[in-house]
Design a protein that fits this description.
The complex is a heterodimer.
Chain A: E1 22-27, H1 34-43, E2 47-52, E3 63-66, H2 86-96, E4 103-106, H3 108-115, E5 122-124, E6 132-140, E7 156-163, E8 167-169, H4 172-180, E9 184-188, E10 200-204, E11 210-213, H5 236-248
Chain B: E1 3-10, H1 17-25, E2 41-46, H2 53-67, E3 73-81
Antiparallel strand pairs in B: 1-2, 1-3
The chains are: A alpha/beta, B alpha+beta.
InterPro entries (chain B): PurS, PurS-like_sf
Main location (chain B): cytoplasm
Subcellular location (chain B): Cytoplasm
Chain lengths: 251, 83
């Protein structure tokens, strides 16, 4: 994970004090977006650490990104087999521990987090049954999580969305609890692209250290290579948020 | 060799998008007698030797932990089929 840049120019100036924060990016068999996620970490100023699903130790990472793709070919259910990878046990323990390891699940990573029961609910096939790839507007409903503190509450951001099993579902009681506790972190704006309940695009756990969403912030981190609206860098805030949290916190 | 068959279905309250697509296709082929389709999964677990109570219990546990997601699916049947 040393090649930078693959495309585009040199990264924009970053805050050097963030560079000491290490964010692990997990690769499963069939993961697609691990390199983009690692690149987003670096463009935000952090240090990306490659993690392998078969690893039995997390090492000294300060946060973890579970990236998108089709781990195990989405066989059985999206994320269902990855959830039982050795490294996932470590991640689940660390996320639930007092240390509150920050964990971000993107797309297939979100599916792995729901299968892991780190986040409630589940994803089923899009209501229209088609794979969909588009620039998607999201509203940041909660900017108090570890991964969204660099956004304004209510801010609208545009990042790519690309999935087939993106329809978020949970029972009404769970949905009501998520709403009441402010754990709906992102909502689709303008159009619900997959039939997700209550237009939910992303949620968090109660502590706010674990966040999952279907759209892809790691594909919107560099001017000229993201969605055309705004600067195309609306996704960068996820990574600067957690880096600032890590650097400003115990580290 | 005996097999343990596990059937998993989407929970009744959950809309099954695949079943909905299938029920839409049936009348186009002249199959007009069906008002709804729900699509589930059937797993066949092959056992080397006899299916003991312990192995059957393992199959039930596997069905609840890995083969199904209790948020969206129900295990509707676990049975032994002698080959």
């Amino acid at each position: 994970m040393t090649e930078l840049p693959l495309i585009g120019g040199a990264p924009v100036a970053v805050e050097p004090h963030l560079g000491g924060a290490k964010i692990g990016v997990v690769t499963f068999p069939g993961t697609l977006d691990d390199r983009d996620a690692a690149r987003a970490v670096r463009l935000a100023g952090g240090t990306a650490v490659a993690l392998w699903h078969g690893d039995t130790e997390l090492g000294d990472v300060d946060a973890v990104v579970i990236p998108g793709g089709f781990s195990y070919g989405d066989y059985l259910r999206a994320g269902a087999i990855s959830r039982f990878a050795p490294l996932m046990s470590r991640i689940i323990d660390a996320a639930n521990s007092d240390a509150k390891l920050p964990v971000l699940g993107i797309c297939n990573g979100f599916q792995i987090l729901t299968e892991s029961h780190l986040l409630p609910g589940s994803m089923i096939k899009n209501d229209h049954l088609k794979f969909l790839c588009r620039d998607q507007v999201l509203r940041v409903e909660n900017n108090k999580t570890f991964w969204t503190s660099d956004y304004r509450a209510g801010e609208e951001i545009t990042v790519p969305l690309k999935n087939q099993d993106g329809q978020y579902i949970a029972d009404e009681k769970t949905l009501d609890a998520l709403e009441a506790e402010g754990r709906v972190v992102f909502r689709y704006v303008g159009w619900n692209p997959n039939g997700s309940r209550r237009d939910i695009a992303g949620i968090s756990n109660a502590a706010g250290n674990v966040v999952g969403l279907m759209p892809h912030p790691e594909h919107a981190v560099e001017p000229g290579f993201g969605p055309e609206s705004n600067a195309g860098t609306d996704g960068l805030g996820f990574f600067t948020s957690v880096l600032n949290k890590i650097v400003g916190g115990a580290k | 060799m005996p097999r343990i068959v596990v059937d998993v279905m989407p929970k009744p309250e959950i809309l099954d998008p695949q079943g909905k697509a299938i029920v839409g296709a049936l009348p186009r082929l002249g199959f007009t007698g069906f008002s709804a389709v729900r699509q589930g999964k059937r797993f066949e677990l092959t056992v080397d030797g006899e299916v003991t109570d312990a192995i059957l219990a393992q199959a039930r546990e596997a069905a609840e932990t890995l083969l199904s997601n209790p948020v969206i699916e129900d295990v509707v049947n676990v049975e032994v089929v002698e080959a």
